[in-house]
Amino acid sequence: MKEEYPFVSVAVVALNAEKTIKECLDSLINLNYPKHKYEIMLIDGYSKDNTIKIANNFKNVKIFHNKAKITASGRNIAIKKSKYNFLAFIDSDCVAPEDWLKILTNNMNVSSSEIAGVGGANIAPKNAERFVKAISIAQRNFLGNLGSAQGKIFNKKQVVDSLATCNVLYRKKNLYDIGMFSEQDKDLGEDWILNYKLRERGYKLLIVPESFVWHNFRSTPKKFFSNMFRYGMARAIIIKRYPKTIKIVNVLPIFFLFTLPMLFTLYLIIIFVTSYRMDKDLWQDIFKVYILQHFGYSLGEISGLLFDDGVRI
């Protein structure tokens, strides 16, 4: 059977990404996909570093500017400026394997028209620093992902609640149907909200275990903690705006903080045993990741619930 290669627009939203953008664009240029069948778009938020200078060396990359400088507006620019009916997103700190786009389009084509998006995992590169590898490993179980598809490793294709926008393919028509990405909250939960709106319209989101990108996660404990704090604030916004979507796992971070004084020793034992069982060589880094993630996310969620805009760190 002859393979079909639909036309696809591939979008990268970037801001001050000089350390990673070359490797990202290199991987997209070298995809195992007919060159005339896809375009590459870089939507830059007026980077102050060498991001644009580096991108200008790629003749086949179309560059657009994002005045709002937030990811949601950058993704919406990609939707409006893209030429084709399928739109793939990958982050500027990610690298795509050669078959990345082929795997996504093949699974979109064989799926029901009810499928609005197809995505996969994001994992640490093989040559990543210890702490980055630890982040990737820690998010593979419930302690690290709280049931979220992001970071979790799936063994079979299945429908999920949300897809990570660092590795996803959407039908552009469906994105227009639900009003595209919300720019209301300045990069807080815009991907989850978009996926939720798609599900509310009756569309389904499919995760494919064969699909992955190498992701250079937040490289330092400080950056990782800040990122987790923001994720917690995003969840608080979602809880307040869409209360009917609340699940028990969404309030676990609050329960965690309030019960920690009584259960602190038990908590330390649980994350120690889990960390050691997951990787005996990296257990100390994984242990640190769990501490930063749980406290960062929990404090961010409480901040978002108590204050309209949360407390930015």
Structure in words:
It is a single chain. The chain is an alpha/beta fold. It folds into two domains: 8-219, Spore Coat Polysaccharide Biosynthesis Protein SpsA, Chain A; 224-306, no CATH class. The protein contains eleven helices and nine strands. Strands 1, 2, 3, 4, 5, 6, 7, 8 and 9 form a nine-stranded mixed beta sheet that branches. The longest helix is centred in the C-terminal third of the chain and has 31 residues, at 248-278.
- Please compute the radius of gyration using only Cα atoms: 19 Å
> What CATH first level of the largest domain would be assigned?
Alpha Beta
β-sheet strand percentage = 15-25%
Q: H/E series, N to C?
A: EHEHEHEEHEHHEEHHEHHH
Tally of helical segments: 11
Structural class: alpha/beta
Question: What is the distance, rounded to the nearest whole angstrom, between the alpha carbons of the first and last residues?
Answer: 53 Å
Here the CATH topology of the largest domain equals: Spore Coat Polysaccharide Biosynthesis Protein SpsA, Chain A
Helix content: 40-55%
Please tally the β strands and state the result. 9
Please outline the major beta sheet: 9 strands, mixed
CATH architecture assignment name of the largest domain: Alpha-Beta Complex
Mean pLDDT: 91
Q: Looking at this structure, what is the CATH superfamily of the largest domain?
A: Spore Coat Polysaccharide Biosynthesis Protein SpsA, Chain A
| Uncertain spans | none
The number of domains is 2
| Envelope shape | globular
